[in-house]
Amino acid sequence: MQSRIRNEQLKEKIMSPMEASKLIKDGMVIGTSGFTPSGYPKVVPLALAERVKRDNEKMKLTLYSGASLGPEVDGAWAEAGILAKRLPYQTNKQLRQDINCGKVEYLDMHLSHSSQYLNYGILPRVDVAIVEAIAITEDGNIIPTSAVGNSPSFIKSADKIIVEISSKQPVELEGMSDIYMLENPPMRTHIPIKTPGDRVGTPFIVCDKDKIAAVVFSDMEDHVRDLAPISDVDRAISKNIINFLEKEVSLGRLTKNLLPLQSGVGNVANAVLAGLCDSTFENLVCYTEVIQDAMLELMQCGKIKKASACSISPSPRGLKSFRENIDFFKDKIILRPLEISNSPEMARKLGVIAMNTAIEVDIYGNVNSTHIMGSKIMNGIGGSGDFARNAYLTIFSTSSIAKGGKISSIVPMVSHVDHTEHDTMIIVTEQGVADLRGLSPKEKARLIIENCVHPDFKEQMRDYFNRACEVCQSCHTPHILEEALSWHANFVETGTMKK
Amino acid sequence: MQSRIRNEQLKEKIMSPMEASKLIKDGMVIGTSGFTPSGYPKVVPLALAERVKRDNEKMKLTLYSGASLGPEVDGAWAEAGILAKRLPYQTNKQLRQDINCGKVEYLDMHLSHSSQYLNYGILPRVDVAIVEAIAITEDGNIIPTSAVGNSPSFIKSADKIIVEISSKQPVELEGMSDIYMLENPPMRTHIPIKTPGDRVGTPFIVCDKDKIAAVVFSDMEDHVRDLAPISDVDRAISKNIINFLEKEVSLGRLTKNLLPLQSGVGNVANAVLAGLCDSTFENLVCYTEVIQDAMLELMQCGKIKKASACSISPSPRGLKSFRENIDFFKDKIILRPLEISNSPEMARKLGVIAMNTAIEVDIYGNVNSTHIMGSKIMNGIGGSGDFARNAYLTIFSTSSIAKGGKISSIVPMVSHVDHTEHDTMIIVTEQGVADLRGLSPKEKARLIIENCVHPDFKEQMRDYFNRACEVCQSCHTPHILEEALSWHANFVETGTMKK
Ligand SMILES: CC(C)(COP(=O)(O)OP(=O)(O)OC[C@H]1O[C@@H](n2cnc3c(N)ncnc32)[C@H](O)[C@@H]1OP(=O)(O)O)[C@@H](O)C(=O)NCCC(=O)NCCS
Ligand SMILES: CC(C)(COP(=O)(O)OP(=O)(O)OC[C@H]1O[C@@H](n2cnc3c(N)ncnc32)[C@H](O)[C@@H]1OP(=O)(O)O)[C@@H](O)C(=O)NCCC(=O)NCCS
């Protein structure tokens, strides 16, 4: 493992995770590698949590990352009460609870804003960066593992850097990353990527080696998670999206190789992609955030030629297949910094087809991706806004009902807006598709109600809309303010949105 | 005037406005030049309205434009009942009423989406384009007047083109426009503009001369409007913004020449800019949509070096000064197509400082720019989202109260969301500034309540927020769903938001 530290001097910095954890002091800002349960540091965060609990130490930290992290950070640190502030995204159960009872302040940000805020000097600088690496080069530069995320910005900003050299991450990952950094305005120029497969940077993250304060060895795997089996609802959503895309091809608006695909995270997103395997589309490319199982499978069956992302985050089964075929995947996958993978400039230039999942959608096409009943955070907006706002096509999908049918995921007014009516284009449920492009609010409402709402809620929704039109004499966006959020209030009070 | 038609063949197409108007048939899609009351066609639209009224003709049209238009189109066509559908923006009183009673379907779109939707083949093609011009070149290309707007896309899309040669628009406008067009993905490349003053295109709009079906002469001026005198509230808002920017400079985040400024339309926006005259900032540049009076004055006093926009839209007084000093302004102003002036790529690359006006803002920083009491459209989102979403700094300002103090412009929950909490950064009222960057929702709420809410509503707002925190046990974004929109409902019912 020592051979992974190609700079002799830095071998003197080898220490145990516990020793390295002592670099982290109360009140500090910590920035970690990692994006979804992939490429994040493990042994140092665990050592810190252990020490804090053992010694009953006072320790409150601000934690920056690329996106969510595995349980060895978000879970362990929440459990140990270490977190004061967290950004820009999380998916951890314990941490979510802590955020939703005021223990942790959470900044739910557009992912593309996170490194930018740091580079612009708006967020406090990073005191200590902890990054998982394949190796350190002769010059002290860092080869990332399965995620690039915000590591380049954290390494640039940090006073001190702790490197976790992972023995579990395959050395073949070296060369998969393409690190290109943006200057701040007014020095910023355009991003020279013309197609998703272009390499425009270095295979390592430039690092001032004098800032590397500790090097530790890690034998812990990414804590990847199983995907739920694809349900009938997921399959119906996937089929509806594919039918819609096929119609676009037949109308001459898209060709059979579509445009670069971006796909959100989670079960529905994976199922949608999986459906492409049996489609007539071919020579596809992806410009996305995260590579999940279905994307790997689509490469193996030859449907996808190239995929640009900022992390590889498969299930345990997907990970096994990825590792076994890593040479096959190596020239097809490019991992980029978040600021590049989620760049609005790239999304609009390439004309990305953005496919993300909603918690709820309202009859005018506003989308809530983050809040349960308007108040409690679920995960966060993640990169969905980065892509949705600037994409060629913006597709949001959701099951038409939730919680066994007690909740309609189409509501009169969403209880929180993450994507406005101006940004959303195509709404898909297992019931059908609503293509909102070129429609006025009332036209959108009629289409969403007829095509997307679950039959159990259709009459109730038509009734709301008709009465709203009557009350405001068919004004631009009819609402009955006293009733607009009553479906949610009803659910909270009675356990169902049904009247 | 004939000399303005530099192509001999096209002189044969000269006709009267009334004759030209006959090219317009029931059910057609019409695309016009113009952006705010500037650069729009006048004599043909008026002739059409007259004819329809006189002959009681059946005529329902879809109207595309760059942004709002003068009363000779939006007003006259609404009055004559000609409009079935309108996009992407309007500010006309009669038309607003027609939209808010269901007579006209209105698509309130991000301006940067409008030409894109047309170019992508999503919106129906233009049957007839009507464009105001300074001249037609030897090759049949068109020299725009005081606005470029969406004219290039409409001219490209249209079956037939009517050109209104204006005798009132000064010939010196020739050379001010810089027409650069985007390809559709996947052929799209980056926009080669590096600084706001760069010229990268042609001074004319490329036009297939065989599509020019009529040339008419017009002696009508742009129907520019007076600005309201700057009020104490406007002045306080302006001062607060300038103080904030000065603090950013002192923190080293900005230099004294700031970053390219974008400024919204209307009285508040103009007042904010006017305040810059006495500031210490210098060598400013603008990358914006519309050039109003204050921007012209800032050029004259040497504060602003260059301004890129897609129209010049001063008051009558400002127009006079512009005309008298047109040679002075000529090399300082560049007029671009909307797709370029409002490009998200440009806003993020240049690091624009976006300053726009809100109708209302909520305690979590969500902004409503478009709807009165959640249902009735005011104007539309315009370009505010194009800039706000991708800017270096996103500033929204509003008076803290409206309608003589009966309305608090800061509310528990906005009744419509145009800019989400993820997009907004700085909220300014005459009361003060709330810098929301890097804050969690509860931190944002406390700051907005203390710094921006009017004293008359502060206690009521604190009370809402405190009870919301209690009810949901300090969850991520505390709300009481039954009460969140009750301030609006109260106003509608009782004429005041005061409890
Ligand atoms: C929206 C999102 C939560 C959906 O995730 P998913 O795994 O596909 O969806 P699920 O149907 O399993 O729903 C997740 C949970 O939300 C609940 N839920 C779904 N719809 C709901 C609704 N309308 N009201 C209340 N709860 C709802 C589900 O019941 C489930 O709750 P549980 O965990 O208690 O069982 C997820 O996609 C997300 O966090 N998106 C935002 C970030 C993003 O888009 N990232 C990608 C950008 S590249
Ligand atoms: C928001 C906007 C309407 C403000 O315009 P303005 O002229 O600066 O502001 P005013 O204070 O005069 O308000 C306009 C009207 O809204 C009303 N209003 C303002 N705040 C209100 C509130 N909170 N609730 C209800 N009505 C309100 C005013 O009373 C006034 O009504 P009136 O015409 O009946 O007197 C205008 O900036 C706009 O349309 N913005 C959206 C588009 C945009 O941002 N374009 C620029 C992008 S580059």
TrEMBL record, chains A, B:
Gene3D superfamilies in alphabetical order: 4-hydroxybutyrate coenzyme like domains (3.30.750.70), Acetyl-CoA hydrolase/transferase C-terminal domain (3.40.1080.20), Glutaconate Coenzyme A-transferase (3.40.1080.10)
Name of the featured protein: Succinate CoA transferase
Stretches assigned to the Acetyl-CoA hydrolase/transferase C-terminal domain: 318-464
InterPro entries: AcetylCoA_hyd_C, AcetylCoA_hyd_C_sf, ActCoA_hydro, ActCoA_hydro_N, NagB/RpiA_transferase-like, Succinate_CoA_transferase
Matches recorded under Pfam families: AcetylCoA_hyd_C, AcetylCoA_hydro
Domain called Acetyl-CoA hydrolase/transferase N-terminal: residue spans: 6-216
Protein family per UniProt: Belongs to the acetyl-CoA hydrolase/transferase family.
Upper lineage: Bacteria, Fusobacteriati, Fusobacteriota, Fusobacteriia, Fusobacteriales
GO molecular function, one term: transferase activity
Keywords in alphabetical order: Transferase
Organism, as annotated: Psychrilyobacter piezotolerans
SUPFAM superfamilies per record: NagB/RpiA/CoA transferase-like
